[in-house]
Design brief:
- The chain has 118 residues and is mainly alpha-helical.
- The protein contains four helices and five strands, in the order ααββαββαβ.
- The chain has one domain.
- Helices cover 49% and strands 12% of the residues.
- The strands form two sheets. The protein has a three-stranded antiparallel beta sheet. The chain has a two-stranded antiparallel ribbon with strand order 2-5.
- The longest helix has 19 residues.
- The termini are far apart.
- The mean pLDDT is 78.
Length: 118
Amino acid sequence: MGPADRIDKTSGLFPQKILERLFLRDVVRSRRYPSPLSALSFAIRYPIDASADVVESPKLVMANLLDYKLWEVDLPGHYDGNYLVDPARRQRAGRQRVCRMIVECVSGIADHPYGGIV
């Protein structure tokens, strides 16, 4: 099974089952060869009475953002109904750049009246 076969066809992100395996591999590697481990987890929150369109639209925006802005090596994926990015295979500056880029990209969404990023 190649990398393209592991990615969710709808979102372009890794599904949770694959993401967990890949992330666990990074945890084991980090313990074996002492090195920092990075992960960025975030969620989109909506008002309780949000319509299906209000809920679906930010999910598509987030999936597109992660799919197009990150490399596959950063392991962008779905985790517990939220999102997880594991830039562990980058040097420290690269990990910081990935996290800053995501925060900057979603900062406009975070102040949206219908919900936000946490």
